[in-house]
Amino acid sequence: MSQLVPDGLYLIDKSAAGFEGSACIATSFPHGSNRLCTSSAREAGENMLKWEVKFDMDQQAYTFRNPTTGHFISFDGEPDTNVHLCGQETPRLFTLTPSHEGINRIHIRAKDSDTDIDNSPLMIYPPLPPIARLQEAKGNVGPLAVGDCYQTESWGFPLVFLPNVVLPT
User: Fold this and answer.
1) In terms of pTM, does the model score above 0.90?
2) According to the lineage, what is the superkingdom (predicted)?
3) Is CATH 2.60.40.10 correct for 8-156?
4) Which residue spans within 16-93 are E strands per DSSP?
5) Measured between alpha carbons, how far is residue 46 from residues 6, 29, 158 in Å?
6) Which of 28, 41, 109, 132 is the most exposed place for a label (fewest CB within 10 A)?
7) pLDDT tens across 34-52, in order?
8) How far is the C-alpha of 131 from the C-alpha of 107, rounded, in Å?
9) What is the percentage of the chain residues whose pLDDT exceeds 90?
């Protein structure tokens, strides 16, 4: 596996074309919580949407860290369907695979697992991004949920432009 996304500071966005920035993975929302959700900068605050993406060459996987909180995208226990994402001090490893949805659209999977980060089918606000098992569906691999109510869109990684900022190594 090669490095699909260069190391840097990104928004991790699931917004549809034309609505970029309205469904980004956010940390500490509601404020004071370690729960992750999808949100916009207007709701969660711009700093809660930024993720430092780093590729670990030895592990052939990525970590995602919010520089404001210092927390990594993670989850409790083993990756399984509907396990909710949270911000934790210990990183979890994820792999990135290109999507059939076009350039700059990527599936995020827990390393050594068949689980993918996707939107929760629960009708709650703010929407929570849990992980879900993958299944064969009509010849394509996509996220699985009870009642097939998960969206199957991939995530985009728009680069955050921060002049004169050096990320810690």
Assistant:
1) no
2) Eukaryota
3) no
4) 24-26, 37-39, 50-56, 61-65, 72-75, 83-88
5) 21, 12, 14
6) 41
7) 878 777 777 777 788 888 9
8) 11
9) 15
Q: Average pLDDT for residues 74-94, to the nearest whole number?
A: 86
In angstroms, the CA 20 to CA 137 distance is: 28
Which residues, in sequence order, are CB contacts of 54 under 8 Å at separation 6+?
Answer: 7, 62, 63, 65
Separation of alpha carbons 100 and 16, rounded Å: 15
For residues 51 and 129, what is the distance between their CA atoms, to the nearest angstrom? Answer: 15
Cis before residue 127, ω within 30 degrees of 0?
A: no
Q: Which two tokens stand for residue 21?
A: 């920035």
Q: Which residues contact 3 (CB under 8 A, 6 or more apart)?
A: 55, 57
Cα distances (angstroms) measured from residue 37 to each of 13, 67, 125: 11, 17, 9
The 10s digit of each residue's pLDDT in 125-160 is 555 554 544 332 223 222 222 222 334 456 665 555
- Distance (Å, whole) CA 121 – CA 129: 9
| Contact yes or no for 87/28 (Cβ under 8 A) | yes
